[in-house]
Every structure is written in C-alpha cells, then in structure tokens.
Design brief:
Elements lengths: L1 H14 L2 H7 L13 H7 L6 E3 L11 E3 L9 H11 L6 E5 L3 H14 L5 H15 L6 E5 L6 E2 L11 E5 L14 E4 L7 H15 L15 E6 L16 E6 L2
Parallel strand pairs: 1-2, 1-3, 3-4, 4-5, 6-7, 6-8, 8-9
C-alpha cells in the first residue's frame, strides 16, 4: 500500500510540472526571450551566487546558489582547491549540506567498495561542507537543509524521491531558475567546476538519479525525455556524447 501511495505521489509530482516542462521544450525551436518575459529573464541572471548547495532540486534557496553535488563530496583534494579558487571572488556567505544526499551516499558506497570501511552518509555530507568552508575561510557558514524541523532550511518535495524533470548545466555562473516557470531541476554550476570531465561526472549522476528508483524512473522519460538545459554554453558541441540518448532532450538557453 505504501509503495502504491509513493507511485501515486510521483505521478502527481510529474503531472503538476507538465505545463512548465512543455513550455521549456520551446527552446528546441526558439530562444528564451520568446518563451519567458524579459523581466523574469533579467532577474534570473541578475545576481551572483551567495551560497553553495547540492545539485538536488529539493534544496531551494531564495538567492542564487552554486550547485555542487554533495557540496563537494565527490571532489578530490586537488579539484576542491581549484574550485575554491574560482569561487573565492564571489564572497560566498553560506555552504549548505542536506539530509538524504545521493552524492554523499555514492561517495560512501564507492569508499566501502574500495576499502571495506563503512561511512555515515550524513557525516560525509557535513564533512564536505566543512572542507569548502575551510578553503573559503567561511567560519560558521554551514547550514543544514532537510525535511525535519531541526534543519536550518526546509527542503521541498518528498523526502524519499527526486521530482526533477530537468538538469540545468550553467556556464554563466549566476543562473537562478526561480524567477522563471521552470520544472524542478538539478543545478550544476559548470562555470565553477574544476574541469569539463567533472561536469560530465555530475551530469551522469543527475541523470542516473532522475531515472533511478529514487527519481521518476526510466519508463516515464521514454515519451517525455529528461531535459538537459545548457545555460550560456560556450561550445555547441560540448554535449555531443549525449545526443544519441533518446531519453534525453538537449536544450540551450542563452541570454
């Protein structure tokens, strides 16, 4: 019964986004200015990020944020240092980690497979945030997001599944989808990533989550593909390896 109820909740979350998903698909044939009003587009690019958050679509902030899987849990020490150098000019004020972090769970799984040692997912998510705070010299900047009342920030959506129908890969460094009528989306801030290879790593993770048991599942994306939106993409061929995948729709939003 509980499983049936969860499936119903997933279907409602899917259906509730259909109109904004359909509007987003307009980017296949036209530019963003013909889909979204100019005031909203300007607002979407008006401010630089003030926080780091996970790419998870359920972690929503009022102000623009840098989307980084697990707040950096998948970065090597070198990659973390490179990314911190790119982030330092932003004068960030907050680093957010959260409950039920899929990136932290993946890190723990890979660590256990390699070493046999079991790690606590929540603790690793927190440690990743602490490392970013240390590199950026941000004492007391950490905040926890979650569905529980003890969290600093409330997560949206359902605690047991992802409701993203899109993935945003932002090369502008300051895109904030909140002012636009956008479907729920993973946010990958590629402008600050240490490499394009790392961007692909996060993209693959976002796709696998959306199409896995903790997302909508692959069947739903057969007829209505997952939208991968490249914002101010510097090179039109960057995502060519993904063009042959029918479960994905590649879109470009330039402004």
């Amino acid at each position: 019964m509980a499983h049936h109820s969860l499936d119903q909740q997933k279907q409602r979350a899917w259906d509730n986004q259909q109109h904004v998903y359909d509007a987003l698909l307009g980017l296949c044939d036209t530019d963003a200015a013909k889909i979204y009003d100019d005031k909203s587009l300007k607002h979407a690019f008006a401010h630089t990020p003030s926080a780091i958050k996970c790419i998870d679509e359920r972690v929503v902030t009022d102000q623009p944020a840098v989307g980084l899987a697990g707040s950096g849990v998948l970065l090597s020490a070198h990659e973390r240092t490179v990314m911190a150098e790119k982030l330092r000019p932003l004068n960030l004020t907050t680093v957010i980690y959260h409950e039920g972090c899929g990136a932290a769970a993946l890190f723990c799984h890979e660590h256990t497979k390699a070493t046999g040692e079991h790690l606590d997912v929540m603790n690793e998510a927190k440690l990743a945030a602490e490392k970013m705070c240390h590199l950026l010299a941000l004492p007391n900047a950490m905040k926890k997001a979650g569905h529980n009342p003890d969290s600093h920030l409330a997560m949206t959506g359902h605690p047991h599944f992802h409701h993203a129908r899109a993935v945003i890969v932002d090369f502008s460094g300051q895109f904030n989808p909140t002012p636009l009528d956008f479907p729920a989306a993973f946010l990958l801030s590629a402008a600050y990533h240490p490499s394009l290879e790392y961007t692909f790593k996060e993209l693959d993770i976002a796709i696998s989550i959306a199409m896995g048991d903790h997302g909508f599942g692959q069947e739903r994306f057969v007829d209505k593909p997952l939208a991968v939106v490249a914002v101010n993409e510097p090179d039109g061929d960057i995502f060519s390896p993904y063009k042959s995948r029918p479960e994905l729709t590649l879109l470009t939003l330039n402004y």
